[in-house]
Design a protein that fits this description.
The structure is a single chain. The protein has six helices and no strands. The protein has helices at 13-37, 49-67, 71-90, 97-100, 103-118, 125-143. The longest helix has 25 residues, at 13-37. The radius of gyration is 18 Å and the shape is globular. It starts with 12 loop residues before the first helix and ends with a helix.
Length: 144
């Protein structure tokens, strides 16, 4: 084990992945709730069809990721949406995200891409379904 690794935290990688997913999805959800419901604050721009669609995806996708349902597919879709949002809304204002105000879009894009590859973590409905399917298949194997 490398000297820079913390041995005890490696035991919690799946739980930390779940925490990362839940908090990121909660933050993402609020971007959509601002657009659609004016909560926690009113959205500062008028909604056009593109922003309305983004708001729906942010609310529905955020809720699905919070509970960890269809996580890989939802995260992949949202990653693509955020890449699109970055280039449409921020990329034309310069190369550097810190200057074009695209940090959130860029971070959500790569965070969701990571979740689509790594999975939702142990605290998710997807993991619960996998555990139940595994238990059911082991019962079937014992019965056979």
């Amino acid at each position: 084990m490398a000297a820079w690794q913390i041995p005890s935290i490696r035991n919690f990688d799946s739980q930390l992945l779940s925490v990362l997913r839940i908090f990121a999805a909660g933050s993402f959800f609020t971007h959509g709730s601002m657009k659609l419901f004016g909560w926690p604050a009113p959205f500062e721009y008028p909604l056009n069809p593109l922003l309305y669609t983004a708001g729906v995806l942010e609310v529905v996708g955020g809720l699905l990721l919070i509970v960890g349902l269809f996580s890989r597919a939802v995260a992949f879709l949202l990653s693509g949406m955020m890449a699109f949002a970055y280039f449409i809304a921020h990329g034309s204002d310069g190369f550097f995200p810190v200057l074009n105000h695209g940090e959130a879009a860029m971070l959500f894009c790569f965070l969701f891409l990571y979740i689509s590859a790594a999975g939702p973590g142990v605290w998710s409905l997807d993991a619960l379904q996998e555990r139940r399917a595994g238990a059911a298949s082991s019962r079937l194997e014992k019965a056979a």
